[in-house]
Write a structure and sequence with these properties.
The chain has 377 residues and is of the alpha+beta class. The chain is built from 6 helices and 24 strands. The strands form 6 sheets. Strands 7-6-3-5-4-23-16-19-20-21 form a 10-stranded mixed β-sheet, sandwiched between helices. Strands 11, 12, 13, 14, 15 and 24 form a 6-stranded antiparallel β-sheet that branches. The N terminus is likely disordered.
Length: 377
């Protein structure tokens, strides 16, 4: 895999880059074993990868030091928290979901979690952090163009372990404007490290705190972009109006993702491949407050690297969506106008759907996927 060294500030000498590449090699380019074959077939063709005009990375500026302040509302998940934490730079990180990578670390600190199809019938996550921190985060894996475009919605520091050829060619065109590139194959240690209890490429780890710090030192702003679009949020429905129970099942190649609705907490405990999901970092059950299923046309890139079948998602435009909140299901549509635009969710009447304050899981599946659920309408 190629690193994007040309777009990073010139603080790393060639010899250092060579040592880092040798030390970290394999994570971005080694195919992962797949326990099962993907059951979903491509439903549409979408091979074009937009290439916006290059924008240089801003010059270095000192990282601002957050100070305690009055409560603020975090724009990513609507949670009330310290004002400085609510407005800090988001960090988006691609995370492994190969069976040997489980349990992963960092889910319970994320504001938003994406799960989407990946190569070889597997899937991959992108975790986005803002008001909470995940000092133990991983395994970190290589990027894909669709994750880059979702990270661009938040103007996030995008952390990844290299990427396929299309990703590495695309990132420089928006780095410094829509995302702030943090490639482990360029950055190296100590921001990224490998653990000894797992084998490569499933053993690369970092922390949202050190990723954000590195990005700010290398030109990223310390705060959330002024005027950036955000989603609407609302308080929980009253207990008396919540349904007694509910469930959601979403198929993926390496095992279905399932949720059960808990009326008392108004939340959705999560399971993967029939096993309750726990965050390895804190030992606690992974729980969503909102579950959003996005149906997107999936095709295979005809210009993939030899030996690979890279998925392409039609994530710009519109499509079917199901929003689960308060134990209820709202069937509607998603809309995204361009790379930097926020993906929004609308009901059948065309009204934007408010989400409950708290963690959002965005489950991306190919158009036509059979998602089953028992939930109030």
């Amino acid at each position: 895999m190629r690193a994007t060294a040309a777009r990073q500030p010139g603080r790393i000498r060639f010899a250092g880059l060579l040592v880092l590449a040798l030390g970290f090699a394999g994570c971005a380019s080694t195919p992962s074993p797949s326990p099962s074959t993907a059951t979903q077939q491509p439903t549409a063709t979408n091979t074009a990868v937009p290439t916006p005009t290059d924008t240089p990375i801003p010059t270095d500026s000192p990282a601002p030091t957050p100070t305690p302040g009055p409560p603020g509302v975090a724009p990513l998940d609507g949670v009330t928290t310290d004002a400085a934490l609510a407005r800090r730079l988001p960090v988006a990180v691609t995370i492994d979901d190969n069976a040997v990578a489980r349990p992963q670390s960092g889910f319970n600190a994320a504001s938003i979690v994406y799960q989407a199809p990946a190569d070889g019938g597997e899937d991959r996550y992108m975790l986005v952090f803002q008001e909470q921190e995940a000092p133990d985060l991983g395994p970190v894996r290589s990027g894909r163009p669709y994750f880059v475009k979702w990270a661009a919605e938040y103007r996030a520091a995008f952390a990844h372990f290299g990427g396929d050829a299309k990703t590495l060619a695309y990132i420089p065109s928006i780095a410094g404007s829509l995302i702030y590139n943090v490639d482990a194959l360029v950055v190296g240690a100590p921001t990224f490290h490998r653990i000894g209890s797992r084998v490569a490429p499933h053993n690369a780890y970092s922390g949202s705190d050190v990723i954000r710090a590195w990005a700010i030192r290398h030109g990223a702003p310390g705060t959330f972009a002024d005027g950036l679009a955000t989603r609407p949020f609302s308080d929980d429905a009253p207990l008396a109006s919540r349904p007694a129970k509910g469930s959601i099942t979403i198929p993926y190649g390496t095992g279905a993702t399932t949720y059960t609705y808990d009326r008392a907490t108004n939340a959705y405990p999560r399971s993967v491949a029939g096993t309750a999901q726990f965050d390895k970092a804190d030992g606690k059950r992974v729980v969503a407050r909102n579950v959003v299923v996005l149906f997107m046309a999936l095709s295979i890139d005809p210009q993939s690297e030899p030996g690979y079948r890279r998925p392409v998602l039609a994530q710009i435009g519109t499509g079917k969506a199901i929003v689960f909140r308060d134990g209820r299901a709202i069937v509607g549509t998603w809309r995204k106008r361009d790379v930097g635009d926020l993906t929004r969710f609308f009901d059948a009447a065309g009204n934007e759907i408010p989400l409950v304050r708290g963690r959002i899981f965005i489950q991306v599946v190919p158009t036509g996927t059979s998602v089953t659920y028992a939930a109030a309408k």
